[in-house]
Structure formats: structure tokens, C-alpha cells
């Protein structure tokens, strides 16, 4: 879904770098692919560095091409993080899209650094003990000119952000929450709905940070005040991965949401 | 033009002369002065290449690959742990059939830490699908690097090329180097050619999943490209000889006083020059020996090797690298090529200093043995006082 929205938002002059993940597989067999973009498929940790070489090559050839790295949350938060951090710090000129389904879904849904507290995965059968890694905040600490979050539940917001990212020069980071029916255990027909619930319950904040200025997206404005947030239970209860959640885990997740929004409010004030 | 320069300076100059577009750099001893020199050239406005100062060697190779597949000539350099750290991308690059060039200033591999020379890092990539050349002088480091760009971008090859040189011994030692003119190099290296270019206009993709049969065919095509590159390398070498008066690149490997020799010693890299001096001395003393220097590990020229060494009574192969548990890689390669008695020596690891006297004693002892018995096996040779090596680590051995 996210890929289709990107096609609509970014137009034709795009070159993709796809790191290991579902998207390496679903594009179909080589030498062509089903994306409509030229794609360099590459090893798990190599995306941001390969993009650093690619956009410079296009510059040397005087070609105006938007380079996009397409990676999952495992490729972003874990194995590819050094490469991502290096490229962000160097302010390399490309868009990095992290498709965040909160686990290593391509290899069967094992926990990643981006898996939330309490979620059951094949490698955390008793539920994950640690909180989700704060990728957006980490990217902001790299002084990148553009960083944003989106959800497949709100495609217009997602496309707006991609379009805006395209107009900015330098390193652009976009993290899209993409609920995975097989890993999160809900019916596939409810994917967009779960993507909306994540935002409505304020579990997943929709934000845009341009040159350090934080803008909370319309869909998330109600989260700024604790009283107007929809109960987190509405998001968790539709998913099978939280079946082991006890009261203490629930409180932990609630305080995670509070912490996230406190941090956003602090960023808005500075 | 002649100039006194180190191996690393010679390589940096070759990169400039080849009009490289993108260089991925990450520091590691003893390769570092290559990238420092390139950064300085760029700062002085002499180099048009875009320099990407990445955060690891894995990324250095990824940057270089990303630029190469997008249509631009690219280069990187590394050593030791750096080469091992980028190992995954080394394979991804050859599998992508991406023409590009990397120089490896060789160094021992840890643990324990050791910054001195040994060729095991370079040799450990011999299965990775690259063309692999190894220099014996700063002059050759420059020459082989320039030739590497043309070989790599030849449609009959379309593979990455790795040029090795002994760390410190070549990388940091200055000798007189002949530098071909920019005009000659421009004529020597044609505009970039490559099998495909990532471009929104053509929408070609690479690295996708293929059905098994195509994957295997791709692997075989790399194998064939390596074996067929032998003719390309000789052709490129002959062309290079025209722009460099000292050039001797009509063959892949180099023979020294082999024609009438009964016995031969086989080496690679800088210490071959010490071995040549030992051969001269041994000949003065009546021993009929010659030397064969391997310059290309891949392709491995069975033909040249058989022609030059096939009629010898026995050969001695001296490795500055190991395939632990099996001896030296050069020794193993020669064993699989020739059907004559071959003895292997592993020495010089981790910077252990081996000079012409050692070669003299190794070769003379070998000839003595070979005259009266069937030689074979692998000897670990220590110059000087080492008489015994304890099993277990030095700390726990009693």
C-alpha cells in the first residue's frame, strides 16, 4: 500500500534502493520488477550507503533523480542503523522510508528493536520486555532537514508528507506504520482500520519536523492533551500479539505513550 | 615523468589519472594515506571525484557499488579488518557484475591485534568473484590500478577488480615511479562501459530474486568471465606497455631466470625482489634455480603456470598467507595445477621480517632435499631463533 502511495506522490523520476525484506520478494522475479521504478536490491545493512553513492552518481551525470531507500524496521532500527546514522549525519541527499511493521516480518515476525513492549513474536513468546526504539527522535538528533511519521491508515497525510519531502534537499526520513495482519494477528481486511486506531489512541504520533520545527499532524492533534486521547486498549485489543498482556504491561505501554507525547511537547516548546 | 613516491601515493595518483567520479573512504592502517592523499587532492582542486567519508568499510563498499551501478566510475581502498568487515558487500558487488576498483594494502587479521604486513586478508577473498592482482613495487601498484579500471569495464569481463600490495613494505616505502601522462591515460582508459545502469528512463532493476536455475547460470557466467579475462588482461597489458616504458604486462605472471632452471621458487608481492636476489646468488654458487612471481590470483592462469613450471623437477612455494589447517593459499593453488613435487612454506606472517638471506637458505635447503628425496608438505619457517612453537596460547603453555 505504502509503495502504491509513493508512486502517486513522487512521480516518475525516482530510483529505489530496496534492502532485504518483504519488498525484496514481492517485487517479483528479476530482471524487471513490479514497482515501476528502477530498483537496486541490496544487502540488509547497505541501503543508506548505497544511496549515498547513487545520488552522487546522478549528480555527476547531471540527472535530476530522487533516490529513495526502502527498508523495514529491522533494517532501520537494528542491522542498518549504523549505515542510516552515518548517512543522516552526512546529510546525504535522499529520502529514507522505513516501513515499520514492528518485527522481522519477512523471516516470520521475530522481534526487532522496533517491536513494542508486550508484543508476542516467535522470538519473544512470553512478550517483549523492552520498549520500542525511538527512531524518529534518534533521527532528529542527527539534525536532519526533514523527518516525519505516517500511517497507512491515513494515505492522504502520507502522500502529503512524501510530496513535501521531495521538495527538500538533504536527508529526509519518513517512518510509516504498516500494521501486519500476520504478525500482529488481526484480519487482513482491517489493516487500514488498525493503522487508524494506532493514531487515534496516540500510540503512533503523526508528526512532521522540518528544519527542527515540530508540527503535529491534524490526525494527532487530540493527543497533545491526555484527556482527549482514545484509550490505548482500543488499539491493543484488536491484535492477537498482545494476548499475553497483563495489567502491568498495559500500564507500561500507557506510560510509553505518555512519555512519547511529553517528549513531543518538549520539542514543540524548544 | 618520474617521481619518488610510496605505494599509497602511487595508487591515489592512479585514481586521479583514471578520472574516478565517486570514492568511498574509511580509514584503516596501512591503507589510510591513500584516502588522505585523495582528500588533499580534492581540497586542492586537482580531483573532480566526489569523496564520501562513510562510517564503516561495509558502507565504503556500498557507496562505491551504489555509484558504480548508477553509471559512474568509482573506487575504494581498505586493509585487514576493514576488508573482512566489508566481506558481504565484496560478494554483492561481484554478483552485481559492477565494474569498480578497490586497492587492498595488506595487513594481518586479528585476533590478536597486528597492524603489520601479511597477505591473508587479500587472499581470503579469492572465492568472491573478483579479478585479483597483486603488486610487487609502488610502480606496479600504480600500473595495475590503472589497468584495473580498463579490465573491469571491458564488456568481456564486467567484474570488480581488487589490487593488492604489501602493507607498509609497499604502501609506505618510496621508490622511483614512472607516471604516464594524463593524455596517455585518457586514451588508454575509454569512457565508462557497464552492463546496465540504474536509471528512471530504463527502469532496470538488479539484485532481485531469480529462479534457482538463473542464479546458477549467473554464477557460472562470473566463473567464465574470470577465466576468459586472461586474454583481456594480456591485451590491456600490451596496450599499457605502450604508455609506460618500463611496462612488462604482456603476461599475467612474471618469470625470472626460469628457462634453464631445474628448480623454481614461487612467490607473490614485494619480497619477490628479495627472492630474485637470492636466486642470483644461488646461481653464482652453481644452483640451477629460477623464480616465478604470481601477479594475478584471479584469473589463475593454469596455462602460463604449466608452460613456465610444468617441466621443473620440483618447486618451492612461499606464502605470506595461510589457509589455516591447510598451509598457504598459493601452495594449494599450485598443487591443484601441477603434477610435480611441490613443497610449501608459510612465513612472514604478522610482519615477521623475511629477507634475501632467508630466501637463500630456504631455497638452497629445498634444492638439497629435492635432489635426494621426494619433497612435499608445508613448513612454517621462522627466521632466527624460534626453534619450537607451543601448542595452545603462549599464556597457558608451560
UniProtKB/TrEMBL annotation, chain A:
Transmembrane segments: none annotated. It holds the Pfam family TPP_enzyme_C. Its EC number is 1.2.7.11. InterPro entries: PorB-like, THDP-binding, TPP_enzyme_TPP-bd. Residues 21-176 form the Thiamine pyrophosphate enzyme TPP-binding domain. Keywords: Oxidoreductase. It catalyses: a 2-oxocarboxylate + 2 oxidized [2Fe-2S]-[ferredoxin] + CoA = an acyl-CoA + 2 reduced [2Fe-2S]-[ferredoxin] + CO2 + H(+). The keyword Zinc does not apply. Coiled coil: none annotated. It is an enzyme of class 1 (oxidoreductase). It comes from the Archaea. The keyword Glycosyltransferase does not apply. GO terms for molecular function: 2-oxobutyrate synthase activity; 2-oxoglutarate synthase activity; pyruvate synthase activity; thiamine pyrophosphate binding. Residues 108-128 are annotated as: Disordered. Catalyzes the coenzyme A-dependent oxidative decarboxylation of different 2-oxoacids such as 2-oxoglutarate, pyruvate and 2-oxobutyrate to form their CoA derivatives. Heterodimer composed of an alpha and a beta subunit. NCBIfam families: PRK11865.1 (NF008819). This is 2-oxoacid oxidoreductase (ferredoxin). It comes from Metallosphaera yellowstonensis MK1.
UniProtKB/TrEMBL annotation, chain B:
It is an enzyme of class 1 (oxidoreductase). Its EC number is 1.2.7.11. CDD domains: TPP_PYR_PFOR_IOR-alpha_like. InterPro entries: PFOR_II, Pyruvate:ferred/Flavod_OxRd, Pyrv_Fd/Flavodoxin_OxRdtase_N, THDP-binding, Transketo_C/PFOR_II. Gene3D superfamilies: 3.40.50.920, 3.40.50.970. The keyword Oxidoreductase applies. Residues 261-355 form the Pyruvate:ferredoxin oxidoreductase core domain. SUPFAM superfamilies: Thiamin diphosphate-binding fold (THDP-binding) (SSF52518), TK C-terminal domain-like (SSF52922). Keywords: Oxidoreductase. It comes from the Archaea. Residues 14-236 form the Pyruvate flavodoxin/ferredoxin oxidoreductase pyrimidine binding domain. Heterodimer composed of an alpha and a beta subunit. Catalyzes the coenzyme A-dependent oxidative decarboxylation of different 2-oxoacids such as 2-oxoglutarate, pyruvate and 2-oxobutyrate to form their CoA derivatives. This is 2-oxoacid oxidoreductase (ferredoxin).
